Amino acid sequence: MQIAAEILAAAKQDLADLVSIRSVSARAEDLEACADKVEDLLSGAGFDTGQYPGDVGPFVVGETGEGPFTLVIYNHYDVQPEDPVDLWTEPPFVLSERDGRLYGRGSADDKGEFVSRLAGWRAFRKSCVEPLPFKIIWIVDGEEEIGSPSLARFLERRFPETTADLCWWEFGEVDKTGRPIILMGFKGILAIELGCRTAKADLHSSLGAIFDNPLWRLATAVSSLRDDKGRVLIKGFYDDVVEPDDRSKQLAAVPPFPLVDLQQETGGERLLAGVDADTFYEHINFEPCVNVNSFHGGYGGEGSKTVLPCEGVAKLDFRLAPGQHPLLVAELLRQHLDLNGFDDISLKILDAEVLGVRSSSLHFAIDLGVDLLLQAFGRPAIIQPSSAASGLAHPFVNKFGCTLFGAGLTHHGAMLHSPDENILVSHLENMIWFSEQFFASLSDRFRLSTEGSRDV
């Protein structure tokens, strides 16, 4: 597996140019400038391009080709804030290379992924200039790092009647042993804030003998939400969960890495009841869960202060399986609180945009990706039915009808959202080669199909 030196050099320069643009969507900073650069790159690579406004940053769209198969490529050009700046070894918005890695904000998430695909496209078109026998719609988002608040509405406006076959998602993973991971799905998410107020101001703690404590109220309410196995106790919570198909169950039944590796990597020690070395991977893929993100209230300073707090706040998130709608889960939670005597606790929805999705791996493009990733990385690919994390992929799956395909170069030491974010140069090379071959293989398949010598 080799790529031309000039292709790699151009990819590095493209990445350096993109990293230099401080496209932080949380601050709405330089998003238009980065969108302009992305559009220039796509236009220069032969795509018909356009920009479309979002709530915060513009969307960039590139289109090319015609045929019986439509590939949607989804990336994003916005990045996380660079703070804390003093923990970066080099300036965060200057691409630097050290010890076989490229460092900079967005080098992995997601500018490096975008650049690897674009470089592969250029290499493919350099050797194949005939008309493309399938269609590509390349969508580059400027709001992903703040939850893509206008993505679904944009897709509905810009592509009201569009159907597509495959969505090449914005990232994929490479584990610590160098095995590429193909992601076939994501969990949904509901983020909420619970609040409780019991007095007009903090009181002397001696009055705890007669007045209730808002932190006790919140702790008791939160503890009613699940058991020691992590099973959510809200009535109706599991009613709409879509069971995984047999193929997905088979893929998750045999963990691709031992539980002890995950424990060593994360430092996690205490497992939920019923989770063990044989079942943990199924839980990661399929089980919805509720998490307590934080408790706030009372005195948190040095030493002691004997105070009865007047109010408290708890932040939680639910990771949801396909079929569960975040807003309905919020309604069920409100009912649970009211039925269990916690009607005084307020509920504020912080995020309810992302629905869980999971695609079947029984698709020719997944088989093609497995074969090409083996050649690119020299290690068999892992097909993961669902990421434990969340991604706003449901419009592409539910609206366009796409099969999800998450393959990319983000390794497990990439320091996403942290100082010294990075990619491995070798992984960049591998994904440029993979992208070139992926485009070429699709082109060969549908050229032959158009000529009538092979069925699609």
UniProtKB/TrEMBL annotation:
Gene3D superfamilies (alphabetical): 3.30.70.360, Zn peptidases (3.40.630.10)
Q: Which GO terms describe its molecular function?
A: metal ion binding; peptidase activity; succinyl-diaminopimelate desuccinylase activity
The organism's place on the tree of life at top rank? Bacteria
Q: Which residues form the Peptidase M20 dimerisation domain?
A: 187-338
Q: Which GO terms describe its cellular component?
A: cytosol
| UniProt keyword terms in alphabetical order | Hydrolase, Metal-binding, Protease
Tell me the GO BP annotations in alphabetical order.
lysine biosynthetic process via diaminopimelate; proteolysis
Residues spanning the signal sequence: none
Q: What is this protein called?
A: Acetylornithine deacetylase
What is the source species?
Phyllobacterium myrsinacearum
